[in-house]
Amino acid sequence: MNQLDFNGKGRRAALRGMAGMLGVLALPAWAARRSDDEAALSRLAGVNASADARLMAAALSAQAPGLSSQALVLAVQALENARRASLLQAAPRSLAVIDFSLPSTQKRLWVFDLESKALLFEEWVAHGRKTGDNMAEHFSNVHESHMSSLGAFQAGVTYTGRNGYSLRLHGLEPGFNDQAYARAIVIHGAPYVSQDIIRAQGRLGRSWGCPAVRSAVARPLIDKLADNAFLFSFYPDRQWLNQSALVGGRVRWLA
């Protein structure tokens, strides 16, 4: 997989121009981490999203200026495509978006009520221990990889296990996250997700692939998502963006 980094300056410029989402969506540049070869592939021309997806994303973005426009548009487009493909067990009333292009020290999980368009939560979230240090870099669908997975999920049932109150996730993207349920990739609270941990070690603690949240917010957040919520985990990984069953082909790349 080619992992690319997000240019924060371009992000802010794109957010200031959210009104432009009703036309052609102008997206910021991606800055490669490791090589000039990756950098040559790291510019997005745009996202081919429906008018409905752009309108919904614009409404939600007004509540969450810290969430990148392209991640939000792709999340809403993936939800629209999942509905059309009859992949959802029930109609979601909430949408959760994780932007793994942000460091773990920043809040990078947003939860929205889809009916009211209200922002319900903006939270820190951990990634898998082999996904990266402070920055996420590697993703997997493989058992025992201890990596996070990308793409679209639907929330399943709640249960209480070794990590306390937890929420099962069903991956909707073959090859990228469809092993999430079997891997026990779940949302749960964790003591290693806190400001104290960030101050002590310069990053959050890491999970075995689960999107772990603060213990204090775990129960109310999980209860909100337990209404068959749609969860979208984003990272500018070229292979996923090109091949995803729900967003594949929606991204136009510049040479």
What class, by secondary structure content?
alpha+beta
Tally the structural domains. Answer: 1
Compressed to H and E, one letter per element, the order equals EHEHEHHEEEEEEHEHEHE
Radius of gyration: 17 Å
Q: State the major sheet.
A: 8 strands, mixed
Low-pLDDT segments = 1-44
Signal peptide: 1-31
Protein name: L,D-transpeptidase-like protein
InterPro entries: TAT_signal, YkuD_2
Pfam family, one: YkuD_2
Write the layout of secondary structure elements.
Elements: E1 5-6, H1 8-16, E2 30-31, H2 36-40, E3 44-47, H3 51-61, H4 69-84, E4 94-99, E5 109-113, E6 119-123, E7 151-161, E8 164-171, E9 186-190, H5 195-201, E10 213-214, H6 215-225, E11 230-234, H7 238-243, E12 251-253
Parallel strand pairs: 4-11, 9-10
Antiparallel strand pairs: 1-2, 3-12, 4-5, 5-6, 7-8, 7-11, 8-9
Characterize the structure shown:
It is a single chain. The chain has a single domain (45-241), classed as L,D-transpeptidase catalytic domain-like. It is of the alpha+beta class. Helix content is 25%, strand content 23%. The protein has seven helices and twelve strands.
Descriptive terms for the model:
single chain; 255 residues; alpha+beta; L,D-transpeptidase catalytic domain-like; eight-stranded mixed sheet; two-stranded antiparallel ribbon; 25% helix; disordered N terminus; YkuD_2
Write a compact overview of the structure shown.
This protein is α+β, with helices and mostly antiparallel strands and 255 residues long. 25% of the residues lie in helices and 23% in strands. The protein has a single domain (45-241), classed as Beta Barrel (L,D-transpeptidase catalytic domain-like), CATH 2.40.440.10.
